[in-house]
Amino acid sequence: MVQIPKTQKAAVVGELGQDVQIRDVPVKTPQELAPGECLLKMICTGVCHTDLHAAMGDWPVKPNTPLIGGHEGVGEVVAIGNDTVDSPVQVGQRVGVKWIAHSCLHCEHCRKGFEQNCDDVRISGYTVDGTFSQYVVSWVHTVTAIPDELDSEAAASILCAGLTVYRALKYSETNASDWVVIPGAGGGLGHLAVQYAKYIGRRVIAIDTGDEKEKLCQDLGAEHWIDFAKTKDIVADVKKLTGGRGAHAALVTTALPSGYTQAVDYLRPGGHLMAVGLPAKAHFNAGIFDVVFKSLTIHGSYVGNRQDAVEAIEIAASGAVKCHYMTKKLSDIEQVYDDLRKGTIAGRVVLTMDV
Ligand SMILES: [Zn+2]
Ligand SMILES: [Zn+2]
């Protein structure tokens, strides 16, 4: 049995826009857990750009304060609330916490498999305390079991970035050998998207900039590389690489609005624009004529449901998809946020729970 302490260290944002501080906060006792809740002793947590947006209060819907951020963590179940019925996870098991911390499973959206759009959704590190703390309360029906073959650190970012791009590919209505363009391919989401796309047999055109990201994308199996800072015309490049016909799908992981507009121009008729990247304040400027005349589909894809998460994790556990990350400590988080602001992080940062 794990000894559960009364207090723990957590990375807390007191007021939105302020620095993160490591504070002592109480740990819920097993007796205080409601039915369906579980207490996790965290092993590690990824840091996502979304966490920075939350801490800064960038988005129209504001997070709770004081805020404990984090939504891609792995922990061990150390307690399950009394009177929990049919728990799919057990004490001692390793599980992952995702952006969607809890969904009701009964509303129309949940019944249709859109748990991420649940009427009663609770969001990790936004509306409920997230994974930047040594103990986290989560929900047995929403956490994702982590297979033994997958390290906790390797699993962390699959739970958010991996899940997000995997679902977008899954719903892109592409077939094996179809061309998928990935703007932002060298980033946290993008480098995972390249690997999932290759795994399901798609041909990848990676768009990003810099020698380091070029090498990463090519090592991961992208067939072509376009450096957006060097090329004069991304649309012409994509058309040329696809025999003049355009790509079947674009998985837009960049937060630049231009990444969206270009995709409308380089998709072939019947193509799918999978919208994933989230600019804080931007409008999507697409020519309606082009969208209609080319029979394009513009598909907003928001994280994923529990099944998408299981599939994304299982593919990673098979060894086919690997997150590129570096490990730091929970107490390094303010410095990690600074690096995120500067855009100097290649791949992901995963924090251990040490302070
Ligand atoms: Zn995230
Ligand atoms: Zn629901």
Automatic annotation (TrEMBL):
GO CC terms of this entry: cytoplasm
E.C. no: 1.1.1.1
Domain of life: Eukaryota
Keywords (A to Z) from UniProt: Metal-binding, NAD, Oxidoreductase, Zinc
Residue intervals of the Enoyl reductase (ER) domain: 17-351
Cofactor(s), names only, from the UniProt record: Zn(2+)
GO molecular function annotations of the record: alcohol dehydrogenase (NAD+) activity; metal ion binding
SMART domains found in the cross-reference section: PKS_ER (SM00829)
Similarity-based family: Belongs to the zinc-containing alcohol dehydrogenase family.
UniProt name for this protein: alcohol dehydrogenase
Species annotation: Gymnopilus junonius (Spectacular rustgill mushroom)
